[in-house]
């Protein structure tokens, strides 16, 4: 997604974990924890997510990438030793604009999505597609809300 802001400004948005609670359709709260106060590899933050179907989660996230101003990523933990998801942003400067690439990967740990697919193999493909569609839509909405909040 190409946005009308300089890369340094966008870096500030994507690393503002408290802001996700204001911008995201899923994440309703985020805060740095364990003494962390900003993006650094190994820093932790917590987040709460609420989904349209009423499902709620509380997670802890560990920063795995913090290459200012171009890459920010984190693993998501739900109480297990192994992360169940990874989120990542890649930024590329385009004059006074920024190209944002956001990605999400399930695994390697066990996620609610994985449990749902295993519980209903016949509906697995449809469930995966619904979640992919939801993730894509929510990523676009989150970025748009970031831009609008700073305009």
UniProtKB/TrEMBL annotation:
Source organism, top-level taxon: Bacteria
InterPro entries: Polyketide_cyclase/dehydratase (IPR019587), START-like_dom_sf (IPR023393)
Gene3D superfamilies named in the record: 3.30.530.20
Name of the molecule in the record: Polyketide cyclase/dehydrase/lipid transport protein
């Amino acid at each position: 997604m190409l946005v009308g802001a300089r890369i340094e400004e966008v870096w500030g948005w994507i690393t503002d974990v408290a802001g996700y609670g204001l911008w995201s359709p899923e994440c309703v709260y985020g805060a740095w924890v364990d003494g962390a106060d900003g993006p650094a590899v190994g820093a932790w933050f917590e987040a709460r997510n609420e989904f349209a179907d009423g499902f709620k989660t509380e997670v802890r996230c560990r920063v795995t990438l913090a290459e200012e101003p171009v890459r920010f990523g984190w693993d998501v933990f739900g109480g297990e030793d192994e992360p169940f998801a990874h989120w990542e942003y890649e930024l590329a400067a385009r004059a006074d604009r920024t190209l944002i690439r956001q990605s999400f990967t399930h695994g390697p740990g066990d996620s609610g999505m994985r449990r749902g697919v295993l519980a209903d193999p016949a509906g697995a493909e449809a469930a995966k597609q619904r979640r992919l569609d939801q993730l894509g839509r929510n990523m676009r909405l989150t970025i748009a809300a970031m831009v609008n909040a700073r305009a």
